[in-house]
Design goal:
The structure holds 2 protein chains of 2 kinds.
Chain A (H helix, E strand, L loop, with lengths): L2 E13 L2 E10 L4 E2 L1 H11 L4 H20 L2 E5 L3 E9 L13 E10 L1 H8 L2 E4 L5 E2 L1
Parallel strand pairs in A: 1-7, 1-8
Antiparallel strand pairs in A: 1-2, 4-5, 5-6
Helix pairs in contact in A: 1-2
Chain B lengths: L1 E13 L2 E11 L2 E4 H11 L4 H19 L4 E4 L3 E9 L13 E10 L1 H9 L1 E4 L9
Helix pairs in contact in B: 1-2
Classes of the chains: A alpha/beta, B alpha+beta.
Chain lengths: 134, 134
């Protein structure tokens, strides 16, 4: 079973104006899976070609974007839910609530319960690197 | 394309004093799932629905398993999924072990295209009578 590699990092923090050194585990990234390699993997595991898999991912991203930009949530049971979000400033009267009070439009993602279960059962492995000071 | 908001009333306590304020809240138009996405993709790509569903299954599996092995996954046009840890700090590097890991989370960062499109999306007032809506 796959495991998440972690390293120990050193941090300097201030508690009641007193300098304190603390240590925490932090994920040691093993790299980035690109869209191209995702497409290759999908092609291996299904009946479609690399090119079709790439077109599928592009199409998938486009459809999800369209839904979010139209104010819909997108719920994928095996991954999670994408929701369009914005920040809004509270004002003194209902009439003052206009689009001018809205900012920071973005997309929020929440992992599904299936994924949450997998995350809870995740295994870890320590990577012995020199202590990183962050 | 547009996002929608409604107006809502909220009670805030400012310096021990109750204050009524008004704020814009996101109105979610609805939720779309895998089947809906598959239907859309079947029409736009020349692929059969079972092929699309299988590819989508494989895509979500690939994302989850990559994240669970410490990798980030970049889906062009959508965003990057990456693992992160919620941890408790310790006073010595030896104590910074797996017991200090409270939770594994998946972070999602929308890519530049989605970010830009969200920021540019228009926002419209959703005026529907509801007890919580104004």
């Amino acid at each position: 079973m796959a495991s998440i590699p972690y390293k120990v990092v050193k941090r300097t923090t201030y508690v009641k104006n007193e300098k304190k050194v603390i240590y925490t585990p932090k994920i040691s990234s093993t790299g980035v899976v690109t869209t191209k390699s995702l497409a290759k993997q999908i092609a291996v595991e299904s009946t479609i070609s690399d090119n079709e898999a790439k077109r599928f991912i592009d199409g998938f991203a486009m459809v999800v974007r369209e839904m979010l930009l139209n104010g819909f949530q997108v719920k994928l049971d095996k991954l999670g839910t994408f929701t369009p979000k914005f920040k809004a400033k509270a004002v003194d009267s209902a009439e003052d609530v206009t689009t001018d009070t809205i900012s920071g439009k973005t997309v929020e993602f929440r992992a599904s319960s299936t994924v949450e279960k997998k995350l809870k059962a995740a295994k870890f492995r320590k990577i012995n690197l020199n202590l990183e000071h962050v | 394309m547009a996002l929608f908001y409604y107006k809502t009333k909220m009670n805030l306590w400012v310096k021990g004093e109750k204050k009524v304020m008004y704020v814009a809240k996101q109105h979610i138009q609805g939720t779309h799932d895998e089947d809906y996405i598959a239907e859309k993709l079947t029409k736009s790509l020349s692929m059969e629905a079972p092929e699309v569903l299988l590819a989508m299954d494989e895509l979500t599996d690939q994302i989850t398993s990559a994240v669970l092995s410490g990798q980030s996954v970049k889906v062009e046009g959508l965003g990057t999924f990456s693992p992160s840890l919620k941890t408790v700090a310790s006073e010595s590097p030896e104590d910074a072990n797996t017991e200090k890991i409270q939770k594994v989370k998946i972070n999602f960062r929308p890519d530049a295209k989605l970010k830009r499109e969200m920021e540019d999306a228009s926002v419209k007032y959703y005026n529907q009578l509801n007890t919580n809506h104004i």
